[in-house]
Amino acid sequence: MTKKNVLMKIKELKTNVAVIKDLELSFGKVFEETWDEPVGPTPFPSVTELREWDFKLLQKYKPFYLPYCDVCCLCTFGKCDLTGDKRGACGLNMAAQQSRIVLLACCIGASTHISHARHLVEHLIEKYGSNSPLDVGGLNIEAEAPVTRLVCGIRPKTLQDLEEVLDYCEEQVTTLLAATHTGQEGSNLDFESKVLHAGMVDQVGMEIADLAQISVYGFPKADPEAALTEIGFGVADISKPTILVIGHNVPSSIGIIDYITDKGLLGKVEVVGICCTAHDLTRYSSAAKIIGPISWQLRYIRSGLADLIVVDEQCIRADTLVEAQKIKAPVIASSPQNCLGLKNRTKSPPKEIISDLLEEKVPGVLILDPDKVGEVAVETVMAVAPKRNKFKIIPEIEEIIKAGEECTQCNECMRACPNNMPIPEAMKAAAKGDLNPLAEILESCVGCARCDSACPNDFPLHSFMVKAGEKQLWKEKFKMRVGRGAIQDIEIREVGGPLVLGEIPGVVALVGCANYPHGGKEVAEIAEEFAKRRFIVVTSGCAAMSIAMVKDEEGKTLYEKYPGGFEAGGILNVGSCVSNPHIAGAAIKIASIFAKRKLRANYEEIADYILNRVGAVGVAWGAMSQKAASIASGFWRLGVPVIVGPHGSKYRRMLLGRKDKDEDWYVYDARTGDKVYGGPAPEHLFTTAETKEEAMVMIAKFCMRPNDTTKGRAIKLTHYIDLHKRLYGVMPDDIHLFVRNKADVPITMKDEILKILEEKGWKERRIPDPTLLPRLIRKRGE
Amino acid sequence: MSMFEDIPVDVGVIYEGERIRRKDMYVELGGPKQEAKFELVRVKGLDEVEDGKITVVGPDLKDVQEGGNIPFGIYIEVAGKDVEEELEGVIERRIHEYCNFIEGFMHLNQRYDIWLRVSKKSFQKGLNSFNYIGKVLMKLYKSELPFIEKIQVTFLTAPEKVRQIWEQAMKIYEARDAKARGMKDEEVDTFYGCTLCQSFAPSHVCVITPQRYSNCGSISWFDGRASARVDPKGPVFAIPKGELIDPEKGEYAGVNEVVKKKSLGAVNRVWLYTSFGYPHTSCGCFEGVAFYIPEVDGFGIVHRGFKEVTVNGLPFSTLADSTAGGRQVDGFHGISIEYMRSPKFLQVDGGWNRIVWLPASVKERVHEFMPKEVVDKIATENEAKSVEELQKFLEARGHPIVERWKAKPVEVVAEEKEEVPAVPVTGLAGVPITAGGFKIILKDAKIHARKVIIRAIKTEEKKKR
Fold first, then answer.
1. Does position A614 have pLDDT exceeding 50, yes or no?
2. Same domain as A761, residue A657
3. What pLDDT is recorded for position A5?
4. CA B96 from centroid of its chain's CA atoms
5. In what order do the strands lie in the sheet with A288-292?
6. Which pLDDT does position B415 carry in this prediction?
């Protein structure tokens, strides 16, 4: 609704009173004010506009650096050793360099989502018109784009309204990237503030992408009962020609489904997907099936089941074309982001492309037109499938045993493995004919195949594992609820009270990639633990898939056992990576719908609300990509702490609070203006956990907020203490920091806790109406 | 060390949501298969209760056949100088919560409807006697409601004994309900206030009276009384109601004073029984909204669970949004379902005679409390989906509101927001160059405005009446 750069030119105008010649009138931005809510303080904030808020966060949660690399080699002065208190040739120190790399990663992540959104919006405008209305939940949703409203201060109504938002995002990322140039930003804290800005802009970009695709493609619109879809290695009917789609940007995959539907080929061609494209395709059509998360690319390709592979963008293995050639499956690349060196055939007639692929004149093609991808993929796969006959490169058992005998136990594979899996041991067992250890490794394998590359004997170790686990793999068929999209306003209103009052102890968001330290089962375990405890569990992306891949004794998955609503004990899949802002959006909507805080361009106040009041925690158990880094930073700026798995320490720095420093934890009491100790809640903004047990204790603990009512705090403490006792075997040592008065003490643990409080010299404290912003201290009315 | 060391299973809030399925259950107590079952709390004199005494009348858990279902009653007697008979209901309701804290012990429903199960796992761990359950209950009661000085618990499983007390219990429930429903605001000198919702609606203060439930529908006057007694510094507190300023509107000096103080001066006056003038504020968790429909001069009601749009084309969320956040908004009023059952329900505005529309499911829940003569004259979504249809319906059925139309054909509506079309953006011809007596000449001029805001021109909102 907001227009940018309006220009009027008047060549010549003569009236009684005036003569006008070559008048140029231009407006930077035109805001249409049909919206009752006034524009808040920070519409389309620049890189520095929210810096003060960032510094407030960074003062509480100081960056703690874990240099993953001691040198900087970004310019030709270098490499510069930055260890100790050394500075590089440009003057930068270690802290700033680490923050700078984090900023680079977050800019990469943010720009990926933003360019994804741009591509999607342009494509949809071209195909469906710029006036296509936006609708993410009909009557049930009033704030269609909470993050965009919050950050930009506009209400997008049609596709064209999204372009301006993307202009803003692109401009911001460019500015942020510029700050990483040699001789620019010198302060680590300013780098960190920019990291938070990148994360915020990233949230906007993702929201735009999902908003556009939900509206135009008719994905489930905030539906708690979105359909259950099939997921797993064994879901595909491989007797049919099979197309495998991999990536994140769904139009080309939708081109395939549309072509199949139009030509009456439903049921004759199988379409299966990996990663977010699969998520979004099942939101579009029940004809598509999901194989699994990103980590399953190699095992699926090598198994030979796919007769044709279509890749779009993001998190696709760079060697897809190489691997596909091994199984003689043609590849269609469909994104400018990922052309794989293939010839651009967008303008060639489909018949020509198809025949080139069938005659194996080329291993693959680049087609930048989703509809054409649909036609070429479907026609090609039907012709190529009988020829290929599911040609696979998974070795026979004898070959594995022989390799086991030849293995020199050099341990290079284990060293290369990100999870340090005992592959040499498994090869030893294989030599004796026991393939079980290899099969077990597959269960925790993140699918990177660095072991293959490391092996001096060139054994295809990853394929060995796939063979060993094959039988189990084929049986894998699960049910996952397809991405529901946004959270309804009514759902927010229902849980707003119980959440703020603590009857629902918190919201746990299980998001991120699939490089889990011990396999996907852990994510499912975490999800179930907290759903059972009546938390709200939200999930997206690869984590949402992993959660589906565990069954109970009755053969039910978590999505079948727990409701899909935003309610106590619910497990909700919001969708793909770009659906993550629905999770942030839910927190924002708690502040706006439930507490009537003004949302429009009012970032700081809403973030302050969430940080102090909404017990939400993000968990990226398999944090991996730069996108995951920027997604996390978008949550930090909003006041939502994030826990990552052990690999997350490779993000180079954590944001840690110091619970031993009382002075760090004071907040204003908005009712009186006094500074009151609010306790270390949440204790950290970004930290890693080594084990799932550690993560679970942290999740329960990080849900506490200074605003908790006594009942809420008692419930939250119960979960924290119970998990701590169960998983560590002892009482936590910091209970006294979280008990404000005796009503906070969980009633079933009263005797025990009162004794501890006495030992710690605990004194009763006031419960503030907490805020970090002095301007929110309330003026007493008359 | 732990409070429940002598209990063979764990006790904690985390077991609250635990469900025990048939195949995991050792024994079932009460439930749909038993007619006679109950839980009852009675307040007794200090000399009538033997503190800590647990009695089991009939077979104990370990004597019941595995997989069986038995009649069941829990009878709790409490005493203390501050325990009043009025609090029996409040104390009784906690049985549900406390039982569910016990690992492998499930309690559903309340009163004469209870349904409990003991899990096989917990039975095997040693939860084989009601004595353990009794110990847990007594410990929790005393620790959470310190005004209980003495408590004794009787578990009944012998069929004739269960039936005997069940019959008495049914009469007690009935008498209790009748008393609660018959209680009038005029008969008490203390109301209760709740500021739990201030964490999100900072100027909201709920005033809870015998005839006006909290907006969220979860705190009755009795609950308020118990909470305020247990934790006088807590979010629920007593409001001495003070001088009665206006009996019709329900304005009390004491209420005004406390609300003013607790809302930090944001709200100074409250009229309890109306939706206009100084209505009770609306938090964010109210169960329903009463909304004024100017075209028919009546009120519609919509509850949270209503998924469609209401008769005026707006869904619950939008209507809720127009009043939430601790504000006093004329004609938009957050309410509880229970308040609809009160004789004081919007009495100033005409009560049920002024209600013209509500969802069928709400009507179903409250129709017994609506005056018989209007029940069929109030439309639901099945009869009217638009204001036009509603008008026709009301006229056809002879709703009392129709009389009002005749009396006052045109009524000025309080706080009606008028949609004024935006003034068309000035065209070229209208570039405001309106000067007299001289000519303006602009040549090669460039004017750039960094930001232009186009606002709809609004007529000033009409004053509150």
1. yes
2. yes
3. 64
4. 19
5. A364-366, A331-333, A308-311, A242-246, A270-274, A288-292, A228-231, A478-481
6. 44
CATH of the domain at B89: 3.30.1650.10
Q: For chain A, what is the domain count?
A: 5
Banded model confidence at residue A152, pLDDT cuts 50, 70, 90? very high
| Facing B309 at nearest CB: one of A17, A139, A707 | A139
φ/ψ of B232, rounded to 5, equals: -65, -20
Q: Which of B202, B326, B439 sits opposite A18 (nearest CB)?
A: B439
Residue-number span of the structural domain to which A61 is assigned: 39-217
A residues 66-85 lying closer than 8 A (beta carbon) to B: none
Inter-chain CB proximity A33 and B451 less than 8 Å: no
Residues A195-208 have a mean pLDDT of: 98
Q: What is the CA radius of gyration of chain A?
A: 27
* One domain for residues B199 and B275: yes
pLDDT of residue B432: 40
B316 touches chain A (CB under 8 A): yes
Q: Chain A residue with minimal CA distance to B441?
A: A19
ipTM above 0.90, yes or no: no
How far, CA to CA in Å, does A416 sit from each of A412, A450, A538? 6, 6, 33
Query: Do A264 and A116 share a structural domain?
Result: no
In single-letter form, the type of residue at position B434 comes to T
pLDDT of A29 = 61
As a whole number of Å, the CA-based R_g of chain B is 29
Residue B431 has pLDDT above 90, yes or no: no
Cβ separation B13–A746 shorter than 8 A: yes
Same domain, A444 and A338: no
Per residue in A563-598, pLDDT tens?
Answer: 999 999 999 999 999 999 999 999 999 988 888 889
The domain in which residue B43 lies consists of: 13-181
Rounded Cα distance between A547 and B43, Å, is: 50
> Exposed, middle or buried by CB within 10 Å (0-12, 13-18, 19+), for B446?
exposed
- Chain A residues close to B266, C-beta within 8 Å: 781
A19 with B13: Cβ contact below 8 A? no
Contact flag B304-A749 (C-beta cutoff 8 Å): no
Give me the mean pLDDT over the A695-723 stretch: 94
B62 part of a folded domain:
yes
Q: Is residue B146 within 8 angstroms of chain A, CB to CB?
A: no
Q: Nearest 5°: CA angle at A643, between A641 and A647?
A: 145
Q: Which residues of A touch B228 (CB under 8 A)?
A: none
pLDDT attached to residue B418: 40
Q: Are both B250 and B145 inside the same structural domain?
A: no
Query: CATH number for the domain including B306?
Result: 3.40.1470.10
Nearest to A27 among B436, B444, B449 (CB): B449
| Cα-Cα-Cα-Cα dihedral sign, residues A663, A664, A665, A667 | positive
Asked if the structure places residue A227 within a domain, the reply is no
Same-domain pairing of A314 and A405: no
Is the Cβ pair B435, A497 closer than 8 Å?
no
* Subunit contact A142:B318, Cβ cutoff 8 A: yes
Q: Stretch A151-179: mean pLDDT, rounded? A: 97
Candidate from B199, B324, B436 with C-beta closest to A500: B199
Query: Which of A335, A359, A388 is at the close of a domain?
Result: A388
Q: Is the pLDDT of residue B67 over 90?
A: yes
* pTM of the predicted structure, to 2 decimals: 0.87
Tokens of A55: 């510094």
Position A291 pLDDT exceeds 70: yes
Candidate from A24-28, A525-529, A725-729, B41-45 with smallest mean pLDDT: A24-28
CB contact under 8 A, B325 and A19: no
